[in-house]
């Protein structure tokens, strides 16, 4: 049993991404039912409602104020589901809120299980989606108050999130979101990435206009803009995103060969310098590809781990089947492949034209490609 004391960290055991908390008799009954239906949850309730089967079912009992449990749950869990009155929850979580980028999603259920309410971190914390899941499990009513969800328009802070898109200029999220929900003229320009980003089964609102180029969008003088591109924008195009956000789709693929023992510092320096030269954002890199002889190369393993990139390697036979502009007898002599970086990129991206066919820099050979618009890469070979 967890004994909650002021100023102490609650000794919980986390097994799942979501915490389920109840403090009343009816709430405990409801929580036990939901715990069976929602397998991704760890259940916590007050020890005075002990049934005797808690240990066998992995239920954690606590004594003391639930307020003292919440700081630990906030640090440990992706989402917290509380069968507690909304007002009490708001008062208890107010002192421990940090930032919408890090706070967990918080969902509240009434004591009768009739309403499931998204309270905190609806988008980034996933509370809105969690609300729908819990409501479906309980056959309850989901209550979402986020404007973009209610109006069925673009949730700017989640735009392209299902594909792994990330944004530049997070300080623009609030004003751009305001333009979207206030039905102002919002331009969307997409140069790369997945085209199926619209989330609803209704038409795109009329205030959101898709333009074929940044130049066309600038001429239209929108109130706000969403630009989806792997490119670093030149100064003359930055005017569009003065009240706008650039989203980085995962479309850039790096092909690489290197001498055995090449340091991660040299590899990273070559990648950074090359991408800047090509006016490509490193945030758009999806994968690093090489030959299978390098699958245990420490520098390559360290760089993909640092940036969270996919690490793909191909056999010499696979590499030799790809079209190649600059075959090398020397590379073939040592690897059995006529090239490494160039064919690796061509295989993964399916692109006919590469941004950089091949460049040797110190101990590293690098090639760079961008996946054709709408292509997801790798698995589509």
How does this structure look, described?
With 381 residues, the chain is an alpha/beta fold. It folds into 3 domains: 2-145, Rossmann fold (3-Layer(aba) Sandwich); 156-248, Udp-n-acetylmuramoylalanyl-d-glutamate--2,6- Diaminopimelate Ligase, Chain: A, domain 1 (3-Layer(aba) Sandwich), CATH 3.40.1390; 252-370, Nucleotidyltransferase, domain 5 (2-Layer Sandwich), CATH 3.30.420.180. It is built from 13 helices and 18 strands. It has helices at 25-37, 54-57, 70-76, 86-93, 127-138, 147-151, 173-181, 214-220, 264-277, 298-307, 316-321, 329-335, 341-349, and strands at 2-3, 18-22, 41-46, 60-63, 79-83, 105-109, 115-120, 141-143, 166-167, 186-190, 208-211, 224-228, 244-248, 252-258, 285-291, 310-314, 356-361, 364-370. The strands form 3 sheets. Strands 1-4-3-2-5-6-7-8 form an 8-stranded mixed beta sheet, sandwiched between helices. Strands 9-13-12-10-11 form a 5-stranded mixed beta sheet, with helices on both faces. Helix 9 packs across helix 10 (298-307). The longest helix is centred in the last third of the chain and has 14 residues, at 264-277. It is globular.
What would you say about this model in short?
The chain is α/β, with parallel strands linked by helices. It has helices at residues 25-37, 54-57, 70-76, 86-93, 127-138, 147-151, 173-181, 214-220, 264-277, 298-307, 316-321, 329-335, 341-349, and strands at residues 2-3, 18-22, 41-46, 60-63, 79-83, 105-109, 115-120, 141-143, 166-167, 186-190, 208-211, 224-228, 244-248, 252-258, 285-291, 310-314, 356-361, 364-370.
């Amino acid at each position: 049993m967890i004994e909650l004391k002021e100023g102490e960290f609650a000794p919980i055991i986390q097994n799942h991404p979501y915490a389920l908390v109840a403090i009343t008799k009816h709430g405990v009954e409801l929580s036990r039912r939901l715990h069976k239906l929602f397998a991704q949850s760890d259940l916590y309730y007050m020890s005075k409602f002990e049934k005797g089967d808690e240990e066998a079912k992995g239920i954690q009992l606590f004594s003391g104020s639930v307020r003292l449990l919440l700081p630990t749950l906030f640090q440990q869990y992706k989402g917290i589901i509380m069968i507690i009155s909304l007002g009490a929850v708001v008062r208890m979580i107010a002192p421990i809120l940090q930032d919408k980028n890090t706070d967990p999603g918080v969902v509240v259920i009434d004591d009768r299980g009739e309403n499931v309410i998204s309270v905190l971190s609806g988008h980034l914390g996933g509370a809105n989606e969690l609300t729908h899941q819990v409501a479906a499990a309980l056959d309850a009513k989901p209550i979402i108050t986020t404007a973009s969800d209610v109006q069925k328009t673009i949730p700017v802070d989640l735009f392209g999130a299902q594909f792994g898109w990330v944004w530049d200029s997070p300080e623009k999220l609030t004003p751009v979101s305001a333009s979207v929900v206030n039905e102002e003229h919002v331009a969307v320009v997409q140069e790369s990435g997945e085209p199926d980003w619209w989330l609803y089964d209704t038409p795109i609102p009329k205030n959101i206009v898709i333009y074929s180029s940044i130049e066309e969008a600038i001429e239209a003088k929108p109130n706000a803009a969403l630009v989806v591109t792997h490119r670093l924008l030149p100064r003359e195009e930055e005017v569009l995103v003065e009240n706008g956000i650039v989203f980085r789709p995962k479309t850039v693929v790096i092909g690489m060969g290197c001498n055995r023992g090449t340091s991660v510092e040299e590899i990273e320096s070559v990648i950074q310098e090359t991408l800047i030269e090509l006016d490509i954002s490193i945030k758009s890199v999806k994968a690093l590809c090489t030959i299978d002889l390098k699958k245990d190369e420490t520098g390559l393993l360290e760089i993909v781990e640092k940036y969270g990139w996919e690490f793909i390697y191909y056999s010499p036979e696979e590499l030799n089947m790809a079209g190649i502009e600059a075959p090398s007898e020397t590379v073939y002599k040592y690897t059995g492949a006529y090239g490494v970086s160039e064919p690796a990129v061509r295989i993964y991206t399916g692109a006919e034209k590469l941004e950089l066919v091949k460049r040797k820099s110190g101990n590293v050979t690098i090639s760079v490609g961008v996946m054709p618009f709408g292509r997801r890469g790798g698995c589509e070979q």
